[in-house]
Amino acid sequence: MGKTILVVDDSASVRQVVSIALKGAGYDVLQGSDGVDALKQLDGRRIHLIISDVNMPNMDGITFVAEAKKLPAYKFTPIIMLTTESQEDRKRQAQVAGAKAWVTKPFQPEQMLAAVSKLIAP
């Protein structure tokens, strides 16, 4: 069994690019279209890492991270924020919520995979 990563982004094309890169590196991928949808995926199954956008409809990424961290099964799941935001205060909010890393869009797949492999190996 490979490691499972949940990719959360309201852009289907971003989810697709991230998923292709992760699958190519040997990870299994689940997808969520926003924070609300992603929380439904956190149903107790083993998820090794979460990659989440910040700006999404229904529930933004920082709120999603904070909610995910309240769930005992996902309290220690590492989270990477993937976003066009580069403002320091947003980064701090994400870190306070529980995010471990920050990858700015547009990103190179290698850059994202490097961040992922620092937190979990395939």
Automatic annotation (TrEMBL):
Domain of life: Bacteria
PROSITE patterns, alphabetized: RESPONSE_REGULATORY (PS50110)
InterPro entries named among the record's database cross-references: Bact_response_regulator, CheY-like_superfamily, Sig_transdc_resp-reg_receiver
Domain Response regulatory, chain residue ranges per copy: 4-120
Keyword Phosphoprotein: yes
Sorted UniProt keywords: Phosphoprotein
Positions bearing 4-aspartylphosphate: 53
Gene Ontology biological process: phosphorelay signal transduction system
Name this polypeptide is given: Two-component system, chemotaxis family, response regulator CheY
